[in-house]
Amino acid sequence: METPAPWHTDPACEHRVACKFQTHYCTYIRVPKLLTLQPASKNSDELIFIVAAQARELWMRVMLSDLAALKNADTGQAQKLLRRDIEIVKLLDLQSNTVETILPRAPIALRAQSAQLARLMHATRALPRDETAREFIARLRAWRARDAKWMRVSERGRAYEKYLRVSELLQLQNAPKMDWAAVGQSPNALSVPEQIGADEVMFVVVHQAFELWFKALRDLVERSIALLFADQVVETTRMMHHAVVIQKLLAQQIHIPATMTPHDFLAFRNETKIADGKKMWRGLSPASGTESYQFRELEIASGLRDNPTYQEFLRGHADLTTRFLTATQERRMAQPSLADAFDQLLARRGVADVIEIFAPHRQTDLADLADALLEYDEFFYLWRVNHIVMLQRMIGEKPGTGYLGLGYLKETAGLAVQGVERIFTQVQKRPRFFENLWHARSRFK
Ligand code: HEM
After folding, report:
1. Would the CB of 44 count as within 6 Å of ligand 1?
2. Atom 3 of ligand 1 has which residue's CA nearest to it?
3. Residue among 322, 387, 406 to mutate when testing ligand 1 (max atoms within 8 A of CB)
4. Using a 6 Å cutoff on CB, does residue 116 contact ligand 1?
5. Does residue 95 fall inside a structural domain?
6. What's the pLDDT score for residue 359?
7. What's the CA-to-centroid distance between 293 and ligand 1, angstroms?
8. Counting Cβ atoms within 10 Å, is residue 423 exposed (0-12), middle (13-18) or buried (19+)?
9. Could you give the count of Cα atoms lying within 13 Å of 375 in the half-sphere of its Cβ?
């Protein structure tokens, strides 16, 4: 196995791959570079603020690229792009709900506003005034007014573009992937497509927006673990409520890829051409969301670190072209998870059986915490299900680019067990992080 070929000066991702030039999720989405663009902050509020503001810039990048594509689009394509932008504005509105719930007031004042937002408003002037365009403009204006009330703009604030690293952020959508290679041969270089279409920009951005929010979730989970060890139950519950609000946003965000059609997706998922009489291809395979190292760190830190099937899965399989387990994840495996921290808290508080905390008027702080943890678990599971349903809409039962496919995902969610097509011999059902809390529900009298 080799180290993935570096893309410019992007930091390494720690994965090992079969061919250094294969399309790799971390390179394609530019994950390691993206995660350097948030300054280390002492409190979770600032990170959430930055993540939300950067995600907002990314979504505006998609809308601007859609509006540019509209100029050469036929009516059907134009309607599709505008409808996507309506969905994005709805998502931004939900994101505003999320952020306003966690941070009733912007924690940091910024000098000036987003240059992309001004360009976007300007670009809407050239739109035809049909029903879809009118809806898009009305929603965008309503969201902008809401956003302007929340965002603190001050002459003495931080410089908007510099603080949010906007220009660097907006250079991460060039989608580096494997170079053209003869079918059945390995690529010899990485390349960026000559032109990135509006759908591929959206596809890269939706993953980047997820990676930003995964970072915020990881931060909340790690802070919650530390707080639990310091017996700060109420503050942990607050943190977990924040995590759930973010998960609810992600439950909507996972449907954004379906704003392109299956054919739009196939156009860049797997491209072929004939050169010198040979069939050549390039595409997304074997890159896959399974290579999202932050998603794994979230699973490990939340409670999967103790599960032997999961540990074996992370160590990898000879038939797969990526080894998932990174050195950082191995180190994280050796540290307590959220589930461990909760169990140890219960032991310190003298709770022998978790059902005791739900008895009326007993240890209400623990009962509130348990409910927040259960909801976090619930929305993690719902993410799995939403992702499965969305991808069925996009690719049906086609094999996944990462070779694991729909069957594997259904198995992780406990919806089905794979047949002969399985790669891992053990059933990959992922246990819930707080099985004891779920079981207690059946024992309530
Ligand atoms: C058109 C959109 C998408 C399709 C068709 C799709 C398809 C798939 C498939 C088939 C897998 C199983 C592994 C494989 O064979 O590749 C997978 C795994 C995964 N995908 Fe997606 N996906 C899409 C969008 C996303 C997005 C937006 C995210 C957000 C980060 C994401 C995150 C993941 C993660 C984390 C896994 C691993 C899940 C696990 O191992 O439990 N996917 N995806």
Report:
1. no
2. 391
3. 387
4. no
5. no
6. 84
7. 13
8. middle
9. 18
What residues form DSSP beta bridges with 281? 181, 272
Q: Is the CB of 285 under 6 A from ligand 1?
A: no
* CB of 286 sitting under 6 A from ligand 1: no
Q: Which residue is closest in CA terms to ligand 1's atom 19?
A: 289
* CATH value at residue 233: 1.20.58.480
Report the C-alpha gap between 26 and 7 in whole angstroms: 10
Residue 125, SS3? coil
Question: Which residue, by CA, sits nearest to atom 16 of ligand 1?
Answer: 402
Please list, in sequence order, all residues whose beta carbon lies within 8 angstroms of the beta carbon of residue 372, skipping any fewer than 6 positions away. Answer: 236, 237, 240, 241, 244
pLDDT tens digit sequence for 209-259: 999 999 999 999 999 999 999 999 999 999 999 999 999 999 999 999 999
CA 242 to ligand 1 center in whole angstroms: 24
Condensed to tens digits (0 to 9), the pLDDT of residues 331-385 reads 999 999 999 999 999 999 999 999 999 887 777 899 999 999 999 999 999 999 9
* Residue 400 CB less than 6 A away from ligand 1: yes
Look at residue 113 and tell me if it is in a domain.
Answer: no
Q: Beta partners for 153?
A: 110
Interacting residues of 40 by C-beta distance below 8 A, sequence separation 6+ = none
> What is the residue range of 432's domain?
1-37+165-445
Does the Cβ of 295 fall within 6 Å of ligand 1? yes
Q: What is the pLDDT of residue 138?
A: 97
For the chain, the domain total comes to 1
187 lines ligand 1 (CB under 6 A): no
Distance of alpha carbon 314 from alpha carbon 301, whole angstroms = 14
Is residue 421 predicted with pLDDT exceeding 90?
A: no
Q: Is the CB of 206 under 6 A from ligand 1?
A: yes
- Mean local confidence (pLDDT), 55-62: 98
Q: pLDDT tier at 440 (50, 70, 90 boundaries)?
A: very high
Residue 94 falls within a domain, yes or no? no
Structure tokens at 314: 């992370």
| Residue minimizing CA distance to atom 4 of ligand 1 | 391
Q: Which atom of ligand 1 is nearest to the CA of 313?
A: 40
- Asked whether residue 60 is assigned to any structural domain, the reply reads no
What pLDDT band is residue 416 in, cutting at 50, 70 and 90?
very high
User: pTM, whole model, 2 decimals?
Assistant: 0.97
pLDDT attached to residue 259: 97
